[in-house]
Amino acid sequence: MAMINENYIKLPGSYLFSEIAKRVDAYKAENPDAAIIKLGIGDVTRPLPPAVISSMHKAVDEMADEKTFRGYGPEQGYNFLIEKIIEFDYAPRGISLNIDEVFVSDGSKSDTANFQEIFGLENKIAVTDPVYPVYVDSNVMAGRSGSLGADGKWTDLTYMPCTAENAFIPQLPNEKVDLIYLCFPNNPTGTTISKTELKKWVDYAKDNKSIILYDAAYEAYIQEDDVPHSIYEIEGAKEVAVEFRSFSKNAGFTGTRCSYTVVPKEVLGYTASGEAIELNKLWNRRQTTKFNGVPYIIQKGAEAVYTLEGQQQIKSLVDYYMTNAKIIREGIQSTGIEVFGGVNAPYIWLKTPTGQDSWSFFDKLLHDVNIVGTPGAGFGPSGEGYFRLTAFASKKSTEEAIDRIKTRLKL
Amino acid sequence: MAMINENYIKLPGSYLFSEIAKRVDAYKAENPDAAIIKLGIGDVTRPLPPAVISSMHKAVDEMADEKTFRGYGPEQGYNFLIEKIIEFDYAPRGISLNIDEVFVSDGSKSDTANFQEIFGLENKIAVTDPVYPVYVDSNVMAGRSGSLGADGKWTDLTYMPCTAENAFIPQLPNEKVDLIYLCFPNNPTGTTISKTELKKWVDYAKDNKSIILYDAAYEAYIQEDDVPHSIYEIEGAKEVAVEFRSFSKNAGFTGTRCSYTVVPKEVLGYTASGEAIELNKLWNRRQTTKFNGVPYIIQKGAEAVYTLEGQQQIKSLVDYYMTNAKIIREGIQSTGIEVFGGVNAPYIWLKTPTGQDSWSFFDKLLHDVNIVGTPGAGFGPSGEGYFRLTAFASKKSTEEAIDRIKTRLKL
């Protein structure tokens, strides 16, 4: 008899975005003429950069000719792309990486979800709260979570609250933890971590032989100086950290699918008998067995991000969204609502006014001014009392949304 | 302290293709002028069909325009592709499927490797021998294999030998098994299973509440009438079988990456307390949590396979390779070597002559006639004494290879 993985049964439904869709649909049904503006989902809207388009057309043509056709590529990605990643994203920051320390993949979602597979089930997992749900759910599926408590927390996970009270900086946990998920610039709060604070985590990981799983998918949005773009800017991080990067948010690849994960050879995990094992070898084995590489055409598109034009074009994309972020941040601030994030990230995290819970504020925003955002409670218990707006709509919609909030929202 | 998944340590290195590469390189170093022909790897060589190329160019252009740009798509794939899959690949065979029973993904390798995640670790796994190594390795990584014996078999897996003695048809196992991996047309043997034989497996699965994981990646190569294209042609299979299909081998997508997996809602797994759970729901949860969909551009390319031109073009591709298969099969047969497969599959499985082991025959073929194939032992213990040749080279190379074997190979 085929027995299922019962960890799946523990997972509640993907409540957040389906509940949002349900409430929006219900409102629309009653108000068919409402001009709803969506500032809820973390998905880009601008077209792909022209350099990427041009490179993909060329790659498509290569696939049409037997002399340049490509069959199976390396599961780890083509060297032409990995070399550019190292040259543009790491070397200028004084970080040296080898070709076989970078793994190209189809998305940071896949990689942050899959990476836990190379670890034992006995590891203690630490996540920030609020958090990107994939880190939690993938560990629930694997069997590391315990059960879900009435407080919305899994009994075996360690939660590190990130709220206004601690300036959204996770504090070192009291109990020992083995695998630590950090995401900066943060989704959903849009806040960042300084090098000094991040150094505390690297030191903790070194002291405890822990691993930091560092999600830097929003790195391109960093505008300020002291904010680390890569965890490897921190001394010692190459011994304890894996870094996830993506083309989704800098180059608009959410529907095009390309990302990469850096696994330095110095990063070690341990067997029960105390033997140290390179995570790089384990991840390589995972990827070569359970993945077959990113399409050649897509990798050629990603490569074009690293041309002179490509670099200028992705800067324009980021600037476009960051202008929206500024419009949202300053507009909301002017209403007296407390605002966080939006300076080095496309996410604005606001404190719901007058002590409303985040779903009530969702309803109010939808009903009063026809704007859809995301209730903070959807990202974890410490997200209650907060609300996320995203900078990914068009500038016109963003301006209109903020104008409505400033002029028509009754706080 | 971060503990690794020690199941990974059990895995031997990816010996097969690296050992082949090593021996070929060593030979080349000593014989730099040798014109080596590779009939070893299961990778296509013909360019993508013109209909696919044209559709991908259009899709790339859509991504360049904000009005037609696509961000995140459904993790399960776009309906435009799923509808065509059902209409062309299933409806004509009398198989009705719903949209949400088909999951588009980036490859049958990923899906056949990942699908075991939704099952408990206590399930007993059955594989044919020889076998596509991914089925075995993914279960080793998950912890279902036991240890690797000196006979090349994992202690906790059930092996079903497929050799000339049983006409390469796996026999129902004596012990009860829960998850059964079947691949027809088979890689590596190139042989098929009749509807009558496949019905025995469906009946076994129904009787034992087992699940059949049916890999039909080579379905397009079927030429004969009684060979099932889909396991759902067998009565009752929709209650017990999941089917994997790919665009890799019919449309040349090995480097373009698109496939799909069918999970009918009738297929059930069980909890320890005996509750029946739809695998469709579990797989949907797995894919929405750990995967983010296939690139829009690639799905548009796959959609074009289902146009009138696309269907003609993939038929030409298959015909091209099957002409090669015929050349190989008949050519090898004429030398007196016993040959299997190659009639409904791009793989030719031959019995190594004069009782040679499969690596000795590999060396002989490389040294005497400069042809690279794949030793059967690389696919499992029962592959010893066999050897795989593939039909994916150019017709010219294939003819030249067979001419060399006929005229210069000393048996």
UniProtKB/TrEMBL annotation, chains A, B:
Pathway where this protein functions: Amino-acid biosynthesis; L-lysine biosynthesis via DAP pathway; LL-2,6-diaminopimelate from (S)-tetrahydrodipicolinate (aminotransferase route): step 1/1
Gene3D superfamilies assigned: Aspartate Aminotransferase, domain 1, Type I PLP-dependent aspartate aminotransferase-like (Major domain)
Pfam families attached to this UniProt entry: Aminotran_1_2
InterPro entries, alphabetized: Aminotransferase_I/II_large, DapL/ALD1, PyrdxlP-dep_Trfase, PyrdxlP-dep_Trfase_major, PyrdxlP-dep_Trfase_small
EC number(s) stated in the UniProt entry for this protein: 2.6.1.83
GO terms for biological process, alphabetical: lysine biosynthetic process via diaminopimelate, diaminopimelate-aminotransferase pathway
Entry-annotated residues carrying N6-(pyridoxal phosphate)lysine: K249
Superkingdom of the source species: Bacteria
Keywords: Aminotransferase, Pyridoxal phosphate, Transferase
Chain ranges of the Aminotransferase class I/classII large domain: 36-405
Listed SUPFAM superfamilies: PLP-dependent transferases
Subunit structure: Homodimer.
HAMAP family registered for this protein in UniProt: DapL_aminotrans_1
Family: Belongs to the class-I pyridoxal-phosphate-dependent aminotransferase family. LL-diaminopimelate aminotransferase subfamily.
Protein name: LL-diaminopimelate aminotransferase
Protein encoded by which gene: dapL
